[in-house]
Every structure is written in structure tokens, then in C-alpha cells.
């Protein structure tokens, strides 16, 4: 039997246009999702549809399509206008769904125009899908920016198999119910055939929202999935925790350049220990809470002054959105205040880096750290936690992990779990991590690495693809046809 081709739809294309000395060039982005999905597109054939990230321009389309061909797949770039970007991306996606799904109701702006543009831009993505759709491909749509694509596809007559994966958390009913378009959004979601979420917590939340807000849907559960009968169709809801390319990280960690940078960082740290954090500049990541917890640690353990450092990288993100801009000022105020309180000649407690760093530097910092401090207030998964462990080819290092990251559900046996809102609790976990004997570190890290080696992103893609292949597609549910 011929394998079905795949159409991947995501807000960003895995390619972007960079200007090198005034010349525009298309480059493939790095990242686990791209690494995992490209082999599927190459093997089965198919197309990746996403935002070009630039103004509409025939030359850009040509560059992107040429680069995609070089990488062994096809792409369809979508161009959104400035007005669409403001209302769809900055508006509904990042000032409604992102804060709502991360329990930050105070950051939500429920503007009716945002919802209107969200559906309009999702319909634009659906038009692009229809331009390549031949009736037999598997369609896989990604993330919160595109929850309405299946509904727009159905309106355009698409009866094919359409799957969705949500990379963020799904909130509890009490939070979700605040959305003015709560039932409409769930009805849009029910146009998918398979809805994948990160964790069991998320599937439970979605199912309870459906029970309350779409009572006419009939729900049953097995030990692996939930099934929803709705308007003569059967929809599967299941958790698929995303992961990383473990082998790629472990191998890259051994590269001579990374080894060299690791040695140089360790040498510069002298006898001291290093705590490491790296996050997008996002209020969900809990950076201010983390800084305050570190300050609390230095206050209660003056003997650590001069002997431990926090290296915190903050990667600029979504800078046009008000909550993100305010966060930068808050972080910088706290860094200045803690550094002002504790710095001594020759020693600074917080090394704060506000920019993106090269990949080799990131890997070297993972390898040189004694402790990785990963304390989001809420996170769909958190790949940094997994990458840190994959690069620890020496089996050393301790992961301090927020219990509100999706990763905690899988990594609780090896990590020290913390409540990121409990500053003294985080300070206590840091103490425990900094003092943990090497044999205990090894025991925990080996457990984590054994798990990740097996639960890698390739397994994630394969499991998801297998389930898509077996779901009933539109118009062919067993009970009705
Ligand atoms: P989120 O998707 O919310 O940003 P994750 O922790 O899941 O959070 O993923 C962050 C990703 O960003 C990781 O894969 C990490 O390697 C990557 N990353 C972090 N810093 C940089 C950087 N300076 N350059 C490129 N990628 C980075
Ligand atoms: O984790 C959610 C996510 O949207 C990722 O898909 C994306 O890589 C990251 O956040 C950065 O967000 P944006 O695409 O808005 O810059």
C-alpha cells in the first residue's frame, strides 16, 4: 500500500529569510520539531505550510521553496498583513490563548477583533492547504495559533484526516470558561479527527471543558485515549509528550568545539559552582521568581557568597506585546538589586545575558553547569529540561524542575521537583542540588538519560503518525456509515 503523504501546518515555517551583507538568503531553522518532522516529509513526501515571516514577495517565495527543495521537502509560504499580524499573532494568539492556556488571566485582552482575525487568518492557512490537497494526504496542524484550521477546511469541503497537536498546556475549566468564545473554540477543535496534547493533565482538562461546554458530545475513555462522538464523527483525544532528538544532543555535546568551550567556562568559574537558566523572555517562565529564590538562597547561606553563580540567559521574544516588555524591566531591576546586594570584588552573583547565544555556547553551558534551574510557572513541556540531561554525557549535574512544567510528569524520578511560587522551597532545592554527592547525581542523571534515550522526538512523531493512520476520518465513522 502506498504511504499517504503528509501536510504539516504550523504558524512558522521551518525556514526563514536572513540578510547577509544585503543579500537575502533562506535558511533552515534548527529545533527538535523540524529535526523530527523533516524525515517524515522526506520519506512519505509532502508539504510544510507556514508563515514566511516576511512581507509578500515573489522572490521570498522562490528562495524559501528552493531551500525547502534542497532540504528534501516542499513548502507553501503564507504572508500575513501587518493588520493580520497585530490581531491574529500578537492579539488572539499571544494576548488571549497564550496567557489563558498558561493560567495568566490578567494578561488576557479579550478583544472581539482578535477573534475575528484569528478565524480569518486560520482560513488563510486552510486556503493554502486546499491549494495542495488532493483528498488523500494526512494533514497535521500544530499549536494554539491554528486551532480553527480544521473548521475552515471543513467549510471548504475537506473530508480528509486532520490531526492537531497542542504544544502548550490546556487549562482547567475554571480558567478556560473565562474565554468569551469558549464554546466556539471547542467546536472548532472538534473538527479535527485527532487532538494530541502534551500530558494527561491537559487531556483531562480538555475533556472536562467539553463535558461542560459541549454537553451534546458523547464521551468515552479507554486507558490510552478519550473518544468523542460528535455530529456523526469520532474524535480521538490523547496525550503525546513531546521530546528532543536525544542522540543528536548527546553527539553534539561531544564535538571538540563544545568540549573546548565547556573547559573554558569551567576554568573561568574557578572553584565555584554554576547554576544555569535559559528561557525565552516570557512571563510564563518564572524568571523573576527564580531570581528572588536565588537571592533568598544567598541570604540564608552566606557561606555560598563568592562560591556559586547563576548564569541566566534570557532570549528576547514577542517584543511588541506589552506583558513581554514589562517583564524585561522587572528582570533587570531584580538582577541589579541582587547583584548590588551581594557582589564582591572579583565575584558577581548573577551573570545575566539578554540575547540569543550560539548553539555551541548553549551546549557548553549545559555541560558546564552544576545545576539547571528550570522553573516555569506553567509550561506545555519545557525542552530545556530534556536538552540539559541529553548533553550530560558525564552523568553529572542536577535538574531542579518546576512541577508545573509538562516535563515534570515524566522526569520526576530524577529531577528535584519544586513549586516555583515557593521561594524558600526553591532555595532549599538549590541547596540540596549544590550539595548533592556525585554518586547521587549520577544515579538520578542516568535514570533521566535512560528515559530520554528511549522517549525521544522520533518516537513522539512515530506514535502520533500511527494513531493518525488509525483514526476514522470525516464521514466514515463506524456507527454512522
Ligand atoms: P519554549 O518553546 O516555550 O520557548 P522550551 O524550553 O520548550 O520553551 O524550548 C526552548 C527552545 O529554545 C529549546 O529547544 C532551546 O534549545 C532553544 N534555545 C534556547 N536558547 C537558544 C538560543 N540562544 N538559540 C537558539 N535556540 C535556543
Ligand atoms: O512553545 C510555544 C512556541 O509557540 C513555540 O512553538 C515557538 O517556537 C516558541 O513558542 C516561540 O514563539 P514565537 O513563534 O511566538 O516566537
Give a short summary of the structure.
The chain has 481 residues and is α/β, with parallel strands linked by helices. 46% of the residues lie in helices and 19% in strands. It has two domains: 247 residues, Glycogen Phosphorylase B (Rossmann fold); 209 residues, Glycogen Phosphorylase B (Rossmann fold).
Classified by CATH, the class of the largest domain is Alpha Beta
Number of helices, counting only DSSP H or I runs of 4 residues or more: 18
Which CATH architecture of the largest domain would you pick? 3-Layer(aba) Sandwich
Main sheet: strand order: 5-4-1-6-7-8-11-10-9
Structure description:
The chain has helices at 32-44, 58-70, 82-101, 112-132, 149-155, 173-176, 182-189, 200-213, 246-253, 256-269, 287-300, 322-342, 359-368, 383-391, 408-411, 423-434, 438-454, 457-470, and strands at residues 6-12, 15-20, 23-28, 46-51, 74-78, 138-142, 162-165, 194-197, 218-221, 226-230, 233-239, 273-280, 308-315, 350-353, 371-374, 398-402, 416-418. The chain is an alpha/beta fold and 481 residues long. The chain has 2 domains: 6-242 and 461-470, Rossmann fold (3-Layer(aba) Sandwich), CATH 3.40.50.2000; 246-454, Glycogen Phosphorylase B (Rossmann fold, 3-Layer(aba) Sandwich), CATH 3.40.50.2000. The strands form 3 sheets. Strands 5-4-1-6-7-8-11-10-9 form a 9-stranded mixed beta sheet, with helices on both faces. A 6-stranded parallel beta sheet has the order 14-13-12-15-16-17, with helices on both faces. The radius of gyration is 23 Å and the shape is globular. The chain starts with 5 loop residues before the first strand and ends in an 11-residue tail after the last helix. Adenosine-5'-diphosphate is lined by residues 278, 280, 315, 356-357, 362, 381-384, 387.
